[in-house]
Amino acid sequence: MSIPEIVRYYGADEGTKAVILYTEGFSNPREFLEAARDVTAKKPILAMKAGRTEQGAKAASSHTGSLAGVDIATELIFEKTGILSFTDEGEMARAAMAFASQPIPKGNRVGIITNTGGPAVIATDVLVSCGLDVPKLAARSIERLKESQFPEAALENPIDVVATAGGPQFRGALDVLLDEEGVDSIFINFVTAPFTDTHEVARQIVEVNRQGRKPIVCNFMTDLSQERFQITRDILKAGGVPIYANPSDAAKALGALSRYGRLKQRHIGLPQTFTDVDALKARLIVEQAQKEGRTVLSATDVYNIFEAYGIPVAGWAVTANASEAAAAAERIGFPVVVKVDCEAIDHKSDMGGVAVNLKDAATVRATVDDMQSRLGHFGTLKFFVQKFLPGGRELIIGATAERGLGHLVMFGLGGIYVEVLKDVSFKIAPVTRVEAGEMLSSIKTAALLDGVRGEKGIDRQAVMALIQRVSQLLGDLPMIQEMDMNPVMAFADGVYAVDGRIRI
Ligand code: ADP
Ligand code: MG
């Protein structure tokens, strides 16, 4: 059986509460993606990608190709299909124990019961770092706790029932947390004090657990060389209480349940289809290039394809010489940018092939003549004249084909530092509106998009629409191997692609 078939098998099996998967990547990623999507709609999949440090990035001419690590795709499949991803196999296995018996928390607020101080502090730290909240209890709950607790108990969250606590004290605290509306899950620190009836404590935990009202995990710290504590453990195990040998492990298991709860609330929606698109025109351009054996599209081709998909570009023209360039600049309106256009030149500015902010026809002519004399030895040059758009934030939007999967779409802060900063995020195409929004907010420098120190923020809606249009373009033109727009100039009102590359 293939991995997708096995996943579907367990997905359909009634006795399976969650599916666990270790993988080094998929030979048939698209098929796995479809299977995972079907199964995660019904039950949790917990998965771990092995071989994460493999840094063999593909040698590629485009920015996007070199920024996507070899197997970023597997993690992206996990993300797209709502698979709970792990980086530690022990943590995944321990989480699976909780998934096997516990309901999914409705929120991230946890109530802690403890009979010792230290482990509760450790648990709190780990729970909080897993995104959980340890809220204050309602006054009513604290009042009710007094009925069951010893005078020296701490009636807050964590509830410290103290070391001498027996069955009634644990049960009293558990009942309060079950009824407390401000708490979605329960964390128990049960250190087996030799002077208490630990069996009775275990029986009370089991009884509450059987009610299945809120997820429970238990840090069971004990000395298993003593037979009576083995019995205590067996009571908990037989009662379906997920027990762990230290507070961190228990906290991470609850953290996984809670992370899954959040994952279930995320709906990425369906990809949007833009109808103002001339798909045929774009296809004919690509087919013409294929016929002529060209793998890198010319600037004219690239900008025509962008325009066919409603991707906003700065006014442009491709010209053959200085006087054509000057005339085009007059039409477009000054100031303009002149860029050399030649298949043999990849990064134009590295060659002195980009001149910005040219304010009149004479400067345009002089610039073209200068480029011709310096760069003519590369072959026949054309000159790309474009409206100069100063003061925008430079973004990059790109795509790369992933064998057996389709395209990965990339978004990040662009410009000439993109390879240094590597501050980009990826999604598998087709990219929905929700995913496009996630791409914007998930880069490290996301705050820059909203503007800092009084700067205006950029037009997020326009960027999201552009990403979705790119996604649609890729779906229509699967032969595209690599594409990037670097930069896309982003302003408070509108975004414009000012440099584009497409390889088929
Ligand atoms: P390349 O990436 O091949 O060097 P680009 O067309 O991206 O060439 O130009 C290099 C840089 O010049 C861009 O990152 C941007 O800072 C600036 N630039 C290019 N076109 C424009 C434009 N139309 N308006 C403003 N700045 C531009
Ligand atoms: Mg560029």
Which structural traits does this protein have?
Rossmann fold; 4 domains; 6-stranded antiparallel beta sheet; binds magnesium ion; alpha/beta; 504 residues; binds adenosine-5'-diphosphate
CATH superfamily of the largest domain: Succinyl-CoA synthetase domains
CATH topology of the largest domain: Rossmann fold
CATH class of the largest domain: Alpha Beta
* Distinct small-molecule ligands in the complex: adenosine-5'-diphosphate, magnesium ion
Can you characterise this structure?
With 504 residues, the chain is an alpha/beta fold. The protein folds into four domains: 85 residues, Rossmann fold (3-Layer(aba) Sandwich); 164 residues, Rossmann fold (3-Layer(aba) Sandwich), CATH 3.40.50.261; 73 residues, 2-Layer Sandwich (Dna Ligase, domain 1), CATH 3.30.1490; 111 residues, ATP-grasp fold, B domain (D-amino Acid Aminotransferase, Chain A, domain 1, 2-Layer Sandwich), CATH 3.30.470.20. It is built from 19 helices and 18 strands. Strands 13, 14, 15, 16, 17 and 18 form a six-stranded antiparallel sheet that branches. A hairpin with a 3-residue loop joins strand 13 and strand 14. Helix 7 runs antiparallel to helix 8 and helix 8 packs parallel to helix 9. The two termini are 34 Å apart. Adenosine-5'-diphosphate binds next to strand 10, strand 11, strand 12 and strand 16.
